[in-house]
């Protein structure tokens, strides 16, 4: 059927795969943003820079410590998450009761500092990072060739997203987190250290961005601009899904990645704007987002 439209099935499934890969990164990054906004009420514009820091952390671990991808996927999110904890303790904790604009401006400034510093030392051309040997090669499915690493990215991203959703929405820890944002005084009465919980939540959201950066390193070149090129799209994904909605971030991230991939097949001229067109339509019909709740 697609051949009648002048589109080969191999091109169609290839773009679907690219859409799923992009959707995996959209989902992971928007999930981190949703966790931070939903629990801390902070619009974290430094999220793209922290995604970039995750990729560079993987590069440094390989270059200076000889630790490859599998070590990096564990260590890099922890290291970058700790930097997030430091940022929260030094700067963000003073902004929680202020307008969202203050947090956005502060994190935007931090993003510019991170990106400018790394651009000064590493330039803008990008650095290579190889696919781990265990995930090299691919599978011939008949209708398309599926690289093993791409399949791993999609499967692992989905697993991380669903696990995060389950912990926040279906466990006692998640109920404590939600209660701490709505009524911190009551939660303190139960002996829970609310400031520490908020700090760790921000660190976890940053670690999710760093994890996405590590996973992106073998696919894209590692560069200081890699986060800046992605963060605007991720913010659009979060707005469409609903600010602070965990499931909204996951479903919308993967869904918009697929829509973007299909648009590149059927209407390539609109592929760079289709997500923003959808965002405008959603905001007109449902300002709180597809999964968000009106306040």
What are the salient characteristics of this protein?
295 residues; mainly alpha; ABC transporter involved in vitamin B12 uptake, BtuC; two-stranded antiparallel ribbon
In brief:
With 295 residues, this protein is mainly α. It has helices at residues 9-40, 47-64, 69-90, 100-122, 148-170, 172-182, 184-189, 194-216, 228-241, 246-266, 274-285; strands spanning 138-140, 145-147. It has one domain: Orthogonal Bundle (ABC transporter involved in vitamin B12 uptake, BtuC).
Structure description:
The structure is a single chain. This protein has helices at 9-40, 47-64, 69-90, 100-122, 148-170, 172-182, 184-189, 194-216, 228-241, 246-266, 274-285, and strands at 138-140, 145-147. With 295 residues, it is mostly helical. Strands 1-2 form a two-stranded antiparallel sheet. Helix 1 packs antiparallel against helix 10, helix 2 (47-64) crosses helix 3 (69-90) and helix 2 runs parallel beside helix 4 (100-122). The chain is globular and about 60 Å long. It starts with 8 loop residues before the first helix and ends in a 10-residue tail after the last helix.
